């Protein structure tokens, strides 16, 4: 077999105890086959079912026994037939014997490949709830040892996934079955995983094998004369969608060797001479710097690049509590001592255990490759192993630099008035909601990350298989098993319906009067003629020439002819979320210019109208701070030149916007009434 080619035999329990999750078993195995069709098209897969009413396998024909074990698909290169065999899984009628299934699967692999080298794997999915038949000779433990010896001799590994729902009573039969499965694990030929929900079953089987590739091999430099040989692997990395490739159908159908490959070539042409192609040696990259473009050649760019030496250097230690979890960036890496290096193993273990005892983490500087253009600063967290045959190691997380951190300030609930804070009843209702949807109740964890597949990837591979069979197929609805990952459990919601009802009663929904007032008052931004043109039929429909009530023209600035009307038109336009702010700013600039250019009060009347319109708009739009700051700054800056104008404002009761007019204001009614008096007293 080729180095990266794998032979896999799926051993699937279809007995009565697995009927409730047969759909999930189909989905997980189908996804495995779909991924192999994308990434490992020369892999081979076989399917063995146990718990079936019928018996169909070579050992039963030759030796007898091995009843209710059926070979549904021989070991072959993955194709549509493999996927079809999984979709037609029968619901068995008798309890299955997983040891018989393992022997049949092992026999299939040995018959197919003999003593040739290669990757071979068995995958067992069962509930392991039913008693196993006694072997002809010896005990069941002896039979397990015999099977394990054969697996070691032919370098065959096995994954065992045991599914049992939480309500299943654990009896002596299950204990014996678990002991036998863990005996395989203790012989280093199997890995055993137990899951208790259909969702966890979906993620228990690794549907794609990723070869472990080191990110770094070299020294962890503690000091100039103390270096530890380490290897670094990625522990977590985002699984991405397969890359879509361009495909050409121009090749004749009779050409069996056509690659259908699409090649893309680019040509660069001058604006001055559009017909002339600019060769690479006459092109150069440039960077915008203000209004100009600064050209930088590739040689200059290489000279500018920072080229640190490859290596990992320890910068120091700090308390675990000083490194906050939300600062971790990118993927997680695993630092292990160099395999076979006893001194490195002892050094890593000693430092890791000392850090664990002292509750410390290490800060390191990392350059993974020679010539790498960037440096990573990260934190090493000790990972102390509880197994004798597993070494101690470190987890590595990248930390941000100052430029990578985003600071966002939000108001605290404690700063809000008591009327805006939750009551005891509301707080209790919210607490009960959190408890109801707790994904990690005592003794059980729902949606474990290591057992929760990405629903988008699962959906993609399922649709890709459907599209291959039916080119015109529509995207199907999200399957029930995947919906459990993306939505709250409907059973929990239904069981705790009184809690959700209490939550609705505790938080009474009322119409927002401010929003309603803003909607109604916003009609004032539109001229009366425009409002009539909306409410009444147009003149054109009535056969009258012309338009009786023309709409206001969209305005982008305040003009001298009708500044208030222009301002209201800008507010009514709302072509973007920033348009209201722009209208207010334009009105502030225009009003300030009126006062600054006023001669003997000739602009006072128009400025008074602008102030009144601006104040009204800021109340409706809940922007009291905008008006209050503008009035305060204008008074402080212009009180000497246009003192009579501010006296006019005071006589018209145009002052600061108070809390009674806009709840978001910080100004009391008394402060608004005495604004001009206090300002005059401060001047004196």
UniProtKB/TrEMBL annotation:
Annotated GO biological process: DNA recombination; double-strand break repair via nonhomologous end joining
Gene3D superfamilies documented for this protein: 1.10.1600.10, 2.40.290.10, Ku, C-terminal domain, von Willebrand factor, type A domain
Subcellular location: Nucleus
GO CC terms in record: nucleus
Catalytic activity: ATP + H2O = ADP + phosphate + H(+)
EC number: 3.6.4.12
Keywords of this entry: ATP-binding, DNA damage, DNA recombination, DNA repair, DNA-binding, Helicase, Hydrolase, Nucleotide-binding, Nucleus
Gene Ontology molecular function, alphabetical: ATP binding; DNA binding; DNA helicase activity; hydrolase activity
One Pfam assignment: Ku
Family annotation (InterPro entries): DNA_bd_Ku70/Ku80 (IPR006164), Ku80 (IPR024193), Ku_C_sf (IPR036494), Ku_N (IPR005161), Ku_PK_bind (IPR014893), SPOC-like_C_dom_sf (IPR016194), vWFA_dom_sf (IPR036465)
Domain Ku stretches: 275-416
Protein role: Single-stranded DNA-dependent ATP-dependent helicase.
Entry similarity comment: Belongs to the ku80 family.
Protein name: ATP-dependent DNA helicase 2 subunit KU80
Species for this entry: Urochloa decumbens
């Amino acid at each position: 077999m080729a180095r990266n080619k794998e032979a896999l035999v799926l051993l699937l329990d279809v007995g009565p105890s697995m009927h409730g999750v047969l759909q999930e078993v189909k989905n997980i195995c189908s996804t495995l086959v779909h991924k192999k069709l994308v990434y490992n098209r020369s892999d081979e897969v076989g399917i063995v079912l146990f718990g079936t009413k019928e018996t169909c396998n070579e050992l039963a024909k030759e030796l007898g026994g091995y009843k209710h074990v059926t070979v549904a698909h021989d070991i072959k290169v993955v194709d549509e037939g493999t996927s079809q065999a999984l979709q037609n899984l029968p619901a068995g009628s008798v309890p299955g014997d997983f040891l018989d299934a393992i022997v049949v699967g092992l026999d299939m692999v040995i018959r197919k490949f003999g003593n040739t080298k290669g990757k071979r794997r068995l995958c067992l999915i069962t509930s392991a709830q039913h008693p196993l038949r006694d072997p002809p000779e010896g005990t069941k433990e002896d039979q397990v040892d015999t099977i394990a010896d054969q697996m070691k001799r032919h370098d065959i590994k096995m994954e065992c996934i045991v599914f049992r729902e939480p309500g299943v009573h654990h009896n002596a039969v299950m204990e014996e079955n678990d002991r036998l499965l863990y005996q395989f694990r203790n012989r280093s030929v199997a890995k055993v995983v137990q899951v208790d929900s259909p969702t966890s079953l979906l993620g228990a089987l690794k549907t794609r094998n990723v070869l472990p590739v080191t990110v770094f091999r070299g020294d962890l430099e503690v000091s100039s004369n103390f270096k530890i040989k380490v290897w670094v692997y990625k522990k977590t990395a985002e699984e991405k969608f397969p890359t879509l490739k361009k495909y050409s159908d121009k090749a004749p159908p009779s050409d069996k060797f056509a690659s259908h490959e699409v090649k893309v070539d680019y040509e660069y042409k001058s604006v001055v001479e559009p017909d002339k192609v600019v060769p690479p040696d006459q092109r150069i990259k440039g960077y915008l710097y203000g209004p100009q473009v600064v050209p930088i050649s590739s040689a200059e760019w290489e000279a500018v690049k920072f080229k640190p030496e490859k290596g990992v250097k320890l910068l120091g230690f700090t308390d675990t509590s000083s490194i906050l979890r939300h600062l971790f960036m990118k993927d997680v890496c695993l630092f292990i001592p160099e395999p076979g290096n006893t001194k490195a193993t002892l050094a890593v273990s000693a430092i890791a255990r000392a850090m664990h005892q002292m509750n410390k983490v290490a800060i390191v500087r990392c350059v993974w490759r020679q010539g790498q253009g960037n440096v990573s600063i990260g934190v090493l967290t000790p990972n102390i192993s509880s197994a004798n045959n597993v070494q101690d190691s470190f987890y590595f997380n990248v930390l941000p630099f100052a430029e990578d951190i985003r600071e966002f300030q939000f108001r605290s609930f404690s700063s809000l008035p008591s009327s805006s804070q939750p009551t005891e009843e509301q707080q209790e209702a919210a607490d009960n909601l959190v408890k109801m949807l707790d994904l990690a109740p005592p003794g059980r964890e729902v949606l474990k990350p290591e057992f929760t597949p990405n629903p988008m990837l699962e959906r993609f591979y399922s649709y890709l298989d459907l599209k291959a069979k039916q080119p015109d197929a529509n995207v199907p609805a999200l399957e029930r098993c995947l919906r459990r990952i993306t939505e709250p459990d409907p059973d929990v919601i239904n069981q705790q319906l009184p809690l959700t009802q209490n939550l609705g009663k505790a938080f009474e929904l009322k119409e927002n009067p401010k929003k309603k007032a803003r909607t109604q008052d916003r009609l004032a931004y539109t001229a009366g003629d425009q409002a009539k043109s909306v409410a009444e039929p147009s003149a054109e429909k009535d056969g009258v020439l012309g338009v009786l009530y023309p709409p206001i023209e969209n305005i982008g600035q305040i003009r001298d002819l009708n500044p208030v009307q222009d301002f209201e038109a800008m507010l009514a336009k709302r072509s973007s979320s920033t348009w209201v702010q722009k209208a207010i700013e334009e009105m502030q600039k225009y009003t300030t210019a009126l006062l600054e250019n006023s001669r003997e009060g000739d602009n006072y009347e128009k400025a008074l109208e602008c102030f009144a319109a601006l104040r009204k708009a800021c109340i409706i739009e809940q922007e009291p701070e905008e008006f209050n700051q503008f009035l305060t700054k204008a008074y402080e800056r212009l009180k000497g030149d246009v003192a009579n104008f501010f006296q006019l404002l005071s006589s018209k009761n145009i002052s600061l916007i108070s809390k009674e007019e806009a709840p978001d204001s910080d100004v009391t009614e008394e402060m608004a009434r005495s604004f001009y008096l206090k300002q005059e007293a401060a001047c004196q």
